[in-house]
Write a structure and sequence with these properties.
Length: 202
């Protein structure tokens, strides 16, 4: 599986394209990916290049990300990944994403996307053509588990299933993903990535 992922990564480096193991045919994946890429403005491609250079040190090195302040805030969200947040980073800087989104296979971690979150949809898109997702209000715990909750007062001091300590609460969020380390036929700004299905049970 990881050989497939690395091949896909190399393809992205040169052509922003490629296909991975998926029930959909390779030809269909390639068509979908190329169509999604064709919609990416050249200004965004330039920004993606900056983001890739800045986050290359984390691509296959979760330990480095943790050393730099990123901590787990979600388990594996299907077709999205594990989210790691750096609470010291705020605002929008293409070279300093506050969230790194990883997938895992056999104990090996690979960066798939970077992400920003906002309390509401930005009045002016930080990237041309940006598309947004959403994440409801939730209590987060130190082991990465979370529980949806409308108010912090509803957060238990420990996670009801794992016993992990309460970490923080946030209200409803608008999310902005940028799939720069794993190809996504749904588009570089898509919330979910259908090619990550093989990682959902890891």
């Amino acid at each position: 599986m990881w050989k497939i992922a690395l091949v896909a990564l190399l393809t992205v480096l040169t052509a922003w394209g490629g296909a991975a193991t998926n029930p959909v045919s390779a030809e269909m994946q390639h068509t979908q990916t190329m169509a999604a890429q064709a919609a990416v403005p050249s200004s965004v491609v330039a920004q993606i290049s900056k983001a890739r250079l800045a986050t290359a040190k984390y691509a296959m090195n979760l330990a480095r990300a943790k050393a730099d302040g990123y901590v787990i805030i979600t388990p594996m969200i299907p077709n999205m990944g594990y989210h790691f947040l750096n609470p010291k980073i705020s605002g929008f800087d293409i070279t300093r994403p506050p969230i790194l989104v990883y997938v895992r296979s056999g104990g090996t971690w690979q960066l798939a996307a970077i992400e920003w979150v906002f309390p509401e949809k930005p009045a002016s898109a930080p990237l041309q053509g940006a598309k947004y997702g959403s994440f409801g209000a939730a209590c987060h715990y130190t082991d990465g588990e979370f529980v949806m909750a409308a108010a912090e007062a509803n957060c238990a001091k420990t996670h009801p299933r794992t016993g992990a300590a309460f970490n923080f609460w946030h209200g409803p969020l608008v999310t902005l993903h940028l799939w720069i380390w794993y190809p996504n036929p749904a588009g570089v700004f898509a919330e979910f990535n259908p090619l990550l299905t093989p990682f959902n049970n890891e």
